[in-house]
Each structure stands twice: as structure tokens, then as C-alpha cells.
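Troubleshooting log. The previous structure file for this entry was overwritten by mistake, so regenerating from the original sequence record. Sequence copied from the archived sheet and checked twice against the printout by T.R.
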Amino acid sequence: MKVETVGMDDPDVNVASLIDMVFLLLVYFMVSASLVKSEADLGIRLPGMLAQAQTVELPDEQMIEIRENGRVILNGRELDSPESQDLPELVALLVRYRLSSEASGNEPMITIWAEDNVPHQRTIDVMNACAQAQIKNVTFTAVAD
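Regenerated output below.
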């Protein structure tokens, strides 16, 4: 038995509907993507060389170390997990430090020391923690090799 094929055309692909679908997927992923919290505004003083004629007594200062693997260490005590961006333990300690410094009449000072290969985002996370604790006197230090 012979089946006759009635003039079948080649199938066409409707490109307009594909473009619409790609646009909708793009919009969906843009809306559903989680956004990274924007950086806090901090006045930063970079380290420099300054000769002084007389010694200056510095108020109590806290040292925050940022390790290459993301660990944050405040005065020898490791805080929060390396994956945490909010750093709640660090913020709580910095708020207590700020309040005790203000109660004693000193200005709270933070020095941040980051290892050479620390991602910049981790340093920004620590600076955001300082901003949440309302500490404005933040400096950076570098260790000469």
C-alpha cells in the first residue's frame, strides 16, 4: 500500500517566540538573583611614614586580622565563620568596644591587617561590620616582608 504525501513543507522555527522566551528567562534570573549588600561609607586613613619629634600616647586600639582563608581574628580571638558576610559576632564585640571606649572618654580605633591574598570582599565585610558598630576611626596596616 502506497501512502501519498501531500506537499509537506520543511518545518520552520519561529524565532520570535524563542527571543521572547530568552528575554523572559533573563528577566526572571535578574529579579530572582540575590544582591550583595552595598559597601558602607567609611573614612579610611592609609598607612604612611611620618616622623615625630616626641612620642604620642595612643588610646586603646583593637587589631582585626583577616586571614587568607577568610577567618577574621580580633585581638587573637577568631570570630564568625569564614563564609559569613554579616559577621554578627564581630559587630557585637565592636559595639561593646565602642560603648566602653566612649564611656572612658577615648575614641574607638580599629586597625585592619589583611594578608596579601585575602579577597577584597572579605575586607569590605570587615569594614561594613565597623560601620554597623558606628566606628569611624578605621586604619589599615601592612607588614613589611
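Residues 55-59 have pLDDT under 50 and may be disordered. Archived copy saved in two places this time.
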